[in-house]
Amino acid sequence: MIFQSKTIMLFMCISLTYVIILCLFYMFFTGKKNWVFSTFVLSKIFYSLGLLALAFRFTIPEFISQNIGGILLFLGISLEVFCFISSDNQFRKRELKALAIPFAIFFMFNLIPQQTPDYVKGIFSAVLGTYTLGFGGIVLLLAKNNSKFRAVFGFIFLLFALGWAIHGIHLFYLQEEFRFMVNEYFTLNIIFVLGEMDIIVGSFGFLLILKEVDELKIAKDKLELKKLIHQKNKFFSIIAHDLRGPIGTLTQLGQNLLKKHEKISPKFREEIISSIYLSAQKTFTLLDNLLQWARSESGTIEIKPVLFQLRDLIEQSVDLFKDKIEEKNLEVKIDMEYNLKCFADYKMMSVVFNNLISNAIKYTPDGGFIGISGVDQDSQIQIAIKDSGIGIDTKVQQTIFEIDSDYLMKGTNNEGGSGLGLKLCKGFVTKNSGKISLESELNNGSIFYVSLPKKQEKKTLIDA
């Protein structure tokens, strides 16, 4: 049974009007006024105006009916496809360009009044329509972190594209016999039926997708909140435990020095002053790490990447721990060319290498070896800090950079630590588009690898 095109198009207009009213009520009562939903409503308005113009082909001028009506209809379909692709509120420029090109071609083809046979217009519309809907369907199906509703409507778009392709092939064989809204054909009815399915199922489906996106966002926010609470607890735990020790030592030593300074021998006084210095230095390092970590996690730290020579930075870090290196009689070798440069935040990398070199010194026994090397690897520079220290257990290596890790180990001379340094290193390296990893074996030393970009990386579009 073949239905009249005008009847079906008017029925579709009524359906679209209902959908538009429903969406407006949804916006009003839920307060959802984001750009995706507003664009979706706009696409339905264009869709209905285009169908209305086409339905009255023999009542209004043909240019307004077929040309302008076709443009509005195609615009509505293109915007709807883009809204489904961007239903997670991510504005995707690459996909927008891919949809804008066929619309621009269709717009230019229909803008100028011309005596073009109906079958040519039909085939042209079918080709561009198949591409637009097929592109949308493929993007939805191949999207990363896809939802079940987006995948379902990916199939619907592909089905719609297939129907349009069949209609185009049918017109190719009919050619001059085809007269739009004069002779009725089953393939045209297929397009209208699929269009009606898209209007009803697609509209409610889009609302379901938005609901699913909101639920995923809420779940993500809950997870983020849980992470922040854990970080806060970790922060206070460090303050309560790790700061209490050195500050308590400073207080006790200062009190002894104040009360008994006249009775204390010069040698013992020197030992107390040395202990006060070491406790103060440890406290300062811990406070500095806490401050840097807090700024990094809160997002208030500003990243200012520059191109700089790595060897200069490494030599400064080694020189910073010169006294400790001499105290433990360590051999430190830097095997790195002076022209080796990376693109990163200089201050952040200073914190990273200060921590890594400090750890290498702490966990390497007296008379041990520390080697620092750098190699050029295509688009990145890899720095390796190797020591002949006590090593790290394999199980611990998997979580040692994570905030959840509570792993702490005393140094070879009983040096303490907060366990915060490596977390800070990972955060700073990651923020500078780099990577950090390690290789280690108990009682056989460790190697920490830091990879940093050689030059500024180009910003890439968000994947669908």
CATH class of the largest domain: Mainly Alpha
Helix segment tally? 14
Largest beta sheet: strand ordering: 2-4-5-7-6
Spatial shape = elongated
Mean pLDDT: 79
Main sheet properties: 5 strands, mixed
Short description:
The chain is an alpha+beta fold and 464 residues long. It has helices spanning 5-30, 35-55, 62-85, 93-111, 118-142, 148-174, 186-241, 244-260, 266-298, 310-320, 322-327, 346-362, 394-397, 421-431; strands spanning 305-309, 331-335, 341-345, 369-377, 380-387, 435-440, 446-453. The strands form two sheets. The protein has a five-stranded mixed sheet, covered by helices on one side.
SSE blueprint and pairings:
Blueprint: H1 5-30, H2 35-55, H3 62-85, H4 93-111, H5 118-142, H6 148-174, H7 186-241, H8 244-260, H9 266-298, E1 305-309, H10 310-320, H11 322-327, E2 331-335, E3 341-345, H12 346-362, E4 369-377, E5 380-387, H13 394-397, H14 421-431, E6 435-440, E7 446-453
Parallel strand pairs: 2-4
Antiparallel strand pairs: 1-3, 4-5, 5-7, 6-7
Helix pairs in contact: 1-2, 1-7, 2-3, 3-4, 3-5, 4-5, 5-6, 6-7, 8-9, 9-14, 10-12, 12-14
Task: Characterise the protein shown here.
Helix content is 64%, strand content 10%. The protein contains 14 helices and seven strands. The strands form two sheets. It has a five-stranded mixed beta sheet with strand order 2-4-5-7-6, covered by helices on one side. Strands 1-3 form a two-stranded antiparallel sheet. β6 (435-440) and β7 (446-453) form a beta hairpin. The longest helix has 56 residues, at 186-241.
